[in-house]
# Entry
Amino acid sequence: MIKYSIKDLEKFSGIKAHTIRIWEQRYQLLTPKRTETNIRYYDEDQLKYLLNVTLLLEHGFRISQICAMTGAEFNAHLKEVAGKGLNSKEDNMLNAAVNELVLAMLELDEQRFEKIMSSSLLQRSFEEVLIKVIYPFLKRIGVMWRIGEVSTAQEHFIYQLIRQKIIVAIDSLIVRSKSSEKYLLFLPKSEFSDLLILLFTYILKNRGKQCIYLGADIPFKDLQQVAQITKPDVLFTFVKAPASKLDTQAYIYELSEKFGDKQILISGNPYFMEELEYPKNVLLILEANDLIEMLTD
# Structure
């Protein structure tokens, strides 16, 4: 059984730990369990309940109302809110969408995933959904993954659903002139999670850039060979879970040296990547908006 601390609940729900404790004392919102050594923790059902509470809060319900509801009333209001789609204020709406995606992942619920994507796409372009909903959701998964609160099956389930959407969207884009800037996108050797690099591929192609997408687990020699043939202007890679800072730093230096005449973009875990050094021709991309700003300069 997965165990969550109150700080975990704060990270996943966006509700401060202090507020959760007040709600526990005043409304008996949650009842934390205790380990054999008397350490408080929460289970997955309590996390799901809290995420659903945030959805109702974001749609105008007061916490006193929510806590007074029977289980049947709570579920009925939840279904009503879901049926209305995303029609609250901008920030609340986006946060609600991210929370819905978290629930879809935890419950392995494809129908819920499709519903939130359809609702989001009714109000935004695909790129806006990627940047304002999917990207923040992936960052939240990153937090959950780092502390071991997402199973491999849950992560793979939601990643594949999102991946399919992005690939279809990339395929639907009109091929632009070959005179535009050319990007070579890839994952280094032993890197296999290509979801974010696919997201960046869509952003680039949507702005008329030529993109050559190699995929995951690309040996350095193969990368050099492809670069000689395709002659890209920019190389773009992503490091999700580096084995060590030394190995990643060495890889950055090697990229910079072997492709000295190229612009190199690299993205990855900001808590790790910000501590590294970057040569002049290497630029760290921490957020999707960093890439967009670079393209509009």
